[in-house]
Design a protein that fits this description.
With 411 residues, the protein is α+β, with helices and mostly antiparallel strands. Helix content is 53%, strand content 17%.
Length: 411
């Protein structure tokens, strides 16, 4: 108790006078002790006092250091907070300035955030509304929508849906394609008008030739004394000319209209069946074969015009046959969200310089034909929002590829 009292007073009075008072008190407390014991006690006390003073100074220095670090960290956090606020303001400004509509859904499918473009497309209210209710209120899908969706006011939008990476919910991007589709339609119409003169001249020439042949064979069939073998031969040639004539008229009509209505949601297996039926109906010369290989493991669905699509693929096969190919293969496969139809042949191919011209309307290297075959294929594939390419690797045969988007859920 006495020593503790001495230590407490030493901590409160560290100056020299206080030390002297302490010495006197120690002497008074231990009168029986000799001078050596007193000196030893005082030395111990002084050493402890110095240690306490040093510890206090160390503690004070550490406190000052920590205070400085805390102040620095506080300033850093404040700067980071200001930067994040600036970034949030910038992102908010960008979101509001986007021409496309942006809708953010929470994990319950409720609209938690949207931009002005989304309101312009879908109207109010949006925030706090269930997305399924917004769909019922604003969307009116039509059979000819294809890979876009119609709104009740007649506009067409494309919809892209992305999941949120760091939190539950979805991000929906709405792009108004109404004006784009109108401009594309006007441009295509202007291009068709510019080609109309060529088409009229080609139509007169290309229809006259098979029509004259058909009239000739029909005249032979009208002869009563015609033997049966010759009658069958004339009938076969007559049907061949009429079929050729029908194909040319169909191609020209497709090119003239320039539009293909995608009114049918079709399973890929049904498309392959229709293509197989069309191929089986082709009249092949001896030694010529056309094979069809369906490599689609899981059937997928397409929004398409079956007749136009099958006709386009048949055009590719006829192109190969007319070029002199003896072996034509059709391979149907599905990869990366696309249905791929590849038509390959072992014909003579074409020069690299012709690659850009062979898909032009009315361009042909044959003495007969309209030059519309590949142009029609390209028009049909474009109407299906697909891709078409043709190449001649090493000028050995031709390789034509049609890629069509697979239909996915819209919402």
């Amino acid at each position: 108790m006495s020593h503790a009292h001495v230590v407490m007073e030493s901590r409160h009075q560290p100056d020299a006078n206080a030390a002297a008072d302490v010495n006197d008190k120690v002497t008074a407390l231990f009168p029986q002790q000799d001078d050596e014991a007193v000196d030893s006690a005082l030395e111990l006390f002084n050493r402890m006092s110095r240690q306490i003073t040093d510890s206090y100074r160390t503690l004070e220095s550490r406190v000052n250091q920590l205070s400085g670090e805390l102040s620095y960290e506080s300033r850093q956090r404040q700067q980071e907070l200001e930067q994040k606020e600036q970034l949030a303001d910038r992102l908010s400004t960008l979101l509001n300035a986007l021409p496309a509509g942006v809708v953010v859904l929470d994990k319950h499918g409720t609209v938690s955030q949207n931009n002005p473009a989304a309101i312009a497309l879908l109207g109010e209210p949006l925030e706090g509304e269930r997305w399924i209710d917004v769909i019922r209120r604003c969307f009116a899908p039509r059979n000819d929508d294809g890979h876009e969706v119609s709104l009740k006011d007649g506009r067409r939008v494309s919809i892209e849906i992305r999941t949120m990476e760091n939190q539950p919910g979805q991000l929906i991007l709405l792009t108004d394609l109404t004006e784009t589709r109108q401009l594309q339609s006007q441009l295509a119409h202007a291009q068709r008008l510019s080609a109309m003169g060529k088409m009229v001249a080609s139509l007169a020439h290309q229809i006259r030739t098979p029509l004259s042949a058909a009239i000739l064979y029909g005249g032979h069939l009208s002869q009563p004394d015609l033997d049966e073998e010759l009658r069958q031969r004339c009938a076969s040639r007559l049907m061949s000319r009429l079929t050729h004539l029908e194909q040319q008229v169909r191609d020209m009509l497709i090119f003239a209209r320039g539009e293909t209505r995608l009114a049918e949601e079709l399973d890929s297996s049904r498309l392959v069946e229709a293509l197989e039926s069309a191929v089986d109906g082709l009249k092949l010369a001896p030694g010529v074969q056309v094979t069809l290989d369906n490599q689609v493991q899981t059937p997928c669905r397409l929004m398409c015009n079956r007749d136009a699509l099958v006709g386009a693929c048949t055009n590719l096969v006829n192109n190969s046959l007319e070029a002199g190919a003896a072996d034509v293969s059709i391979v149907v496969s599905a990869t990366s969200g696309r249905l791929e139809i590849r038509v390959s042949d072992n014909g003579p191919g074409f020069e690299p310089g012709e690659a850009g011209r062979i898909m032009e309307a009315f361009y042909t290297t044959k003495s007969h034909g309209t030059g519309l075959g590949l142009a029609v294929v390209q028009a049909v594939v474009k109407a299906h929002q697909g891709e078409f390419s043709i190449s001649s690797p090493g000028q050995q045969g031709a390789d034509a590829i049609v890629r069509l988007p697979i239909l996915t859920a819209r919402f």
